[in-house]
Amino acid sequence: MSQQLTLTRIETLRVLSCMGIDLPAHTKLPDDALEKRLRQALNASQVLLTITSSPVLDILSFSRWPSNKKQTVFDAIGRASMAEYGAIMAKRAMGLSTVDPLRVDPFDDVRQTVMHLAKNWDEGYKVLLVTDPQQSEAEKVPINIRYLEVRMINEHTPLIVLLYGPVASSHSAHREAASMWLEEKLDDIPRAADGSVPMPHIKASFEEQKLLSKLLSQNAKYVPAEYDHQVKRTQAEPASLYKTTFILPLNPLSFEDIGKLNLDTGCVVCGERVSSRCSQCQSVSYCGQACQRLDWSSHKRTCRSLKGGTWFTIPLSGSPEGSQPGKSASVLTWNRFSVPRKALDVKNVQHIDPEKTFPNIHADKVFLIKIQLSAPINPERSMMIYDRQRSFEAYWLLDAETKELFEKFVIEMQGPRGGYAGLKMYRWARRTGDKELSVCLDRAPQESIPW
Ligand SMILES: [Zn+2]
Ligand SMILES: [Zn+2]
Q: Which residues form the MYND-type domain (predicted)?
């Protein structure tokens, strides 16, 4: 079977989902619209559009990364969100490996490969192979990489410039070009004592290889023609098969980015302009009956649990002052950091000013929230509210204006649809404003909730 380094539709959806952008599995969004969303997501992850506003990245305008060992490219290139940072610290404290297993999340796999690329550069390697060890020799579609140089966007942001390929159109042409390149490079690599040639390589799943290939190819378009012309190519690296490209640190997407990429999805099935909502629950929008029918099997569970429910609008605010020692009144968000993994510390935690709005990653979609009542001994009565992704963590503070509604929520929590010792409940909600939420109070979600 011929193997191509191109993400299939299902794989593209999976990558988007791993990046936090959830589209229905049976979406009819055209391939080019899906591809565009992935391109935007990868650009957002690289913060590329804040580095260059033009369609080219002027590589030569950045100075070279200093070759002293004080700050390695590896140390600078890692990025983590607050949630990931917490997980890394917990693993470290338990003495566990902080490297996640391959083949779980292709986006995470590529982020780890970027760190490997940096490490290999620091160790002085000039070339590298990215292959899937689970594929047979005949199936393998290696990505060959030769380092050109590393430049410095700023002291935390290296720019690794590479030549990669082959970008052949058929599997056989790819394999032929790849092995020619390999033969050429093997001559330059010192032989080990047993006569073998230790070719540096990175293990990748096939899906990850495809995503990496996508990233390399979309970044190649940002390389200025003048830069490309001065790259010295060997015989096995013709411009038709090997492209000049670059790698930047890959950040987990910020909630603002996810919010933007989840916006304007139109009909939940096909992305076309919407004309109606589900009349049973009002929670999803469609372009017409055909799409609504197609979506029923996945929507019915939510729909049945919402049908006939009563929605109330509640205010959101920052945490009650003084109720959490050491925390200010601001809201902690688990967000993207433009600092390396190593340099992360509490100072880098982003706070949201309570006067500001809460990020909205859900657009106008219905999502699950967890509502937790403050402990009865706490003199200040409040409810803490957050979503699965913890894209926001907000409070509803008991005040004269909403006292009656607040009590209604407490009664619901302590009633038969509540549970959890009457101190918390899960409910469906929808954002109705920057600092408010509409909650379906008298319907408990039917699915099991793992958070
Ligand atoms: Zn539709
Ligand atoms: Zn419905």
A: 267-303
List, for residues 119-136, the tens digit of each pLDDT value: 999 988 899 999 998 988
CA distance 16 to 10: 10
Residue 116: strand pairing partners: none
CA atoms within 13 A on the CB side of 372: 11
Residue 345's pLDDT band (cuts 50, 70, 90)? very low
**CA separation for the pair 404, 429 (Å, rounded):** 19
Q: Do 74 and 115 touch, CB atoms closer than 8 A? A: yes
The whole-angstrom separation of Cα 275 and Cα 284 is: 11
Distance from C-alpha of 16 to C-alpha of 145, rounded to nearest angstrom: 25
Question: If you measure from the C-alpha of residue 66 to the centroid of ligand 2, how many angstroms do you get, rounded to a whole number?
Answer: 58
Q: What angle do CA 422, 425, 429 make, to 5 degrees?
A: 150
Judged on CB neighbours under 10 Å (0-12, 13-18, 19+), 315 is middle
The model's pLDDT over 298-311, given as tens digits with 9 standing for 90+, comes to 888 888 888 888 99
The amino acid at 96: L
Count Cβ atoms within 10 A of the Cβ of residue 347 and give its class: 0-12 exposed, 13-18 middle, 19 or more buried: exposed
Any bridge partners for residue 293, and if so which?
none
Cα 274 to averaged position of ligand 1 atoms, centre (Å): 7
Which listed ligand is nearest to 286 at the C-alpha? 1
3-state secondary structure string across 48-93: HHHHCCCCCCCHHHCCECCCCCCCCHHHHHCECCHHHHHHHHHHHH
CA 306–ligand 2 middle distance (angstroms) = 7
C-alpha torsion sign, points 372, 375, 376, 380? negative
- Which residues make Cβ contacts (< 8 Å) with residue 28, sequence separation at least 6? 269, 270, 271, 291
**What is the reported pLDDT for 103?**
64
Spatial CA neighbour of 77 closest among 339, 258, 256: 339
Residue 352 DSSP SS3: strand
DSSP code per residue over 319-348: PPTTSSTT--SSEE-----SSBTTT--GGG
DSSP string, 167-204: --SSHHHHHHHHHHHHHHHHTTSPPPTTS-----EEE-
Query: What is the DSSP track for 208-228?
Result: HHHHHHHHHHHHHTTS-HHHH
- Residues around ligand 2, an ion, CB closer than 5 A: 278, 280-281, 303
| Nearest Cα residue to 197 out of 122, 112, 118, 129 | 129
Instruction: Give 281 Cα–ligand 2 centroid separation in angstroms.
Output: 4
**In this structure, are strands 276-277 and 201-203 parallel, antiparallel, or unpaired?**
unpaired
Residue of 9, 4, 21 whose CA lies nearest to 259: 21
> Which two structure tokens, joined as six digits, stand for 62?
């950045």
